[in-house]
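Submission sheet (multi-component)
Chains listed below:
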Amino acid sequence: MSGLTMFFALLMYGAALVFTVGVGWRVFIYARTPAPLKIPTTPAPTTRTGVWIRMAREVVLFESLFKSNKWIWLFGYLFHASLLLVLIRHLRYFTEPVWGWVALAQTFGTYAGFAMLAGLFALWLRRIVVQRIRYISNLSDHLMLWLLMAIALTGLMMRFVAHTDIIGLKMFALGLLRLDIQPVPADPLVLAHLALVAGLMLVFPISKLLHAPGLFFSPSRNQVDNPREKRHLAPWAAKLESK
Amino acid sequence: MAKVEFETPKMREYPVIPIIHADAMAHSQPFVASSQHQESLGFPGQLVDNWKEVAIDKMGELLTKYRSLKVYLDSCVKCGACTDKCHYFQGTTDPKNMPVARQDLFRKVYRRHFTFAGKYFPRLVGAEDLTEQVLGDWYKYFHQCSQCRRCSVFCPYGIDTAEISMAAREIMDTIGKGQKYCNEIIGKVHKIGNNLGLPEPALADTLQGLEEDIKDDTGFDVRLPLDVKGADVLLVTPSADFFAEPHIDGLIGYAKVFHQAGISWTLSSYASEAANFGMFIGSYDQMKKIAERVRTAALELGVKRIIVGECGHAWRVAYSFWNTLAGPFDFLDPRYPSPQHIIEFTSDLIDSGGITLDKEANDNRIVTFHDSCNVARASRMGNLPGGQFELPRKVIKAACNHFVDMPADTIREKTYCCGGGGGLLTDDLLELRVKGALPRMEALKHVVDNNGVNNVAAICAICKSQYSKVLPYYGFPRDMIVSVHQLVSNAIVLGDKQ
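Outcome: structure written.
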C-alpha cells in the first residue's frame, strides 16, 4: 500500500470519526440541556403532530426564510436542494450494485452540481455586496462558502473537464467501507476533492454547520403550544419547588 | 446625564431597508441600578472586582440551564434574514441593532470561552474576550432590544434574540451592572405588591373613586371590589390600569363587563400587578417569586378562576409560564382555562349573549388594532393557534362599526413592537423609544391617510404608555391610543337585559 493511499485512507476514516462523534456529542448536549420554559414562537401547533408538520415545513421548504427574504431563500434553497441531489448521486460510489433509485438520480445529480455552485456563489456575492451582510460576516463565513465551492468545482471538473479513474475511485471508496483498503487514484483532482470533503467533515461539529442538528432542537420551533393544559417543568426548576 | 437632543425619524413613503450607520446609538444606555435596588433583589450592589470571571462562570451556568441559549448560539449561519427585521434597527440604522449583530455581541464571547474554534482561532470566527468595551456594548445594546421576538419569526432556525438579551441581562445583574428601571420596579413588587408601589389604602381609594365616576357617568352601581374573599374571579391586571390614561378606561370596561355578566370578582392588593419584569431581566427566580404572589392571593381569596387584564408581556408570563412557575393551578375550576385573558372572557360573553354591545356608541371612531408583540408571538387566546389575533379583533368589531387593519406585514405575527417593551419604557431611553416606534408609526400613518383611522386600540399597558408618549413626536394626537375594553366600556349596555 502506497503512503498516499495510507494517508487518504486514514484521513477519510479520521474525518468520518470526528464528524460522527463530534455531531453526536453536540446532539447529546442539546438533548441533555433542558428547556425550562415554554417559548414556541406563536402561533404554534397545539399538538405533537402539528409540531412535526411545522418542523417538516421548515426542513423541506425553509418556510421561515421564505417569509423573510426571497433572495436568500432562493439561493439557499438552490444550494441545499442541489447538495441533496449531489449526495444522492454520490451513493453510487458506495454501493455495488448501484441501487435503482440512485442510478435514476444520476443525471439530475450531475447537473445539480452546477446549481449548487451557482447557489453558493450567489450567497457569497450577497455576503460581499450587501452592506448589512458584509457587516455580520467573519472570515470563517467566507471560508465556509469557499470550501463548499471548491468541493463543487473539483467535482465538476472531474466530470466535465478532466475525467478521472472513476472505477479506481469507487474501488477505493468501497475498500474503505469493507475495511479492505484499495489504492487511491493518484489524480490531483480526486485527491483535492477528497481532502476538501474531509475538511468539511472535520469542521462540521465545531462550526456553524451545526445549524443542521440545531434546527431540530430549537425550542421556538419544536415546542407544543399547550402550557395551560400541561405543566412543563425542567429538572433544575423542579428542585426550586421543594424550597 | 445630559439630556440628549435627537431628531424624530422622518416617516418614509415606502419602507426601505436603511443604510447602516455605525455607532448611531452608541450613546444610548439606561441608568444603572443603584446598590440599594440591586441588593434588594440579591444582586451585587456594584460591579464586582472579578466581574469577568463571574460573568463567564454565569454564562457557563446558563448554557447548561437553557437549551435555547446553547442551540441559538451555535446555530446562526449569518444568513442575514433577520438583519432588517428589528424596529430599533429600522429606526436608528445602528448596525448593532440588527438582531444577528446584537446576538454576536454575546456570541463572540461565547465562542472565545466555550468553543474550539474560538479558543484556538479567535480571529477566524470573530471570537473576543469580555473586555470593558464589550461589556459597555452589552449594556447599551441589550437595552436596545425589546425582546419582541419579531426576528425569531423570520429566522430559519427560530433563533430568538430575546433569549440572548435576557441571558445577557441576567449576567449583567449577576456581576453588579443591572438596569435601574427594571430592578427598582421588581423591588416594589416584592415590597408592596405592584410596579407602582401603590399601597393597599391608596388602591382602595382609587377604586372607590372610580366607582363614583362610573355612577356619575352611567347611573349604575358598578363595583371594583378589592380583597373580597369567596369571589368567583380574581382579576390580575397591570397596575398602570389603576391610574394611567387610557389604561384606566380599560379597567372601567372590565368592571362593567363583570357587572353586566353578574359574575362576582375581586382585585387583590397583595397581587395587584400582572406585569412581571422578572422576564425582562431574564431571571427565572425573580419571575417565579412575582408569579407566586398571584397563586398565594388566589388561594387566600378562595377564587375559582383567574383572569388577566390587558397587558402584553404579563399575558406571556401568565399564559406560557405561570403553570410552570407557580402551578399547578388545580385548585381552580377546571371548566375554565387558567389563566384566562379578559379578552377571552368578554369574547365568550359576546357569544353567549351575556353582554350586549351597542356599536353606535363608538361611531365617532375608526379603529385599528395594534398586535402587542408578546401576545402575538409568545402566547395564545382561545382554542386555536392565532386566536390571539382573532379574538381581540372580534371584540373590537363587536363594539365598533368601523375597523381597519394596518398593512399585512406589520400586524399579527409580523407585528412591530411599539418601541417601549422589554423593560425599556423609561425616559432615560426616550430617544430609542421614539426612533424604535418608526415602523409602527409608518404603518399607522398608512391607515390614517387612507382610511381615516382616528384610534388605535391595544391590549398592553406598556404599548398604551409608549403610544401616549411617542404619538405626538410623529404628529398624531396623544389620545389616539385606546384600550380595547375602553371601546367595550363605551358600547356595553348596562341594566336589565332586553
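Remark: The first helix of chain A runs from residue 3 to 32.
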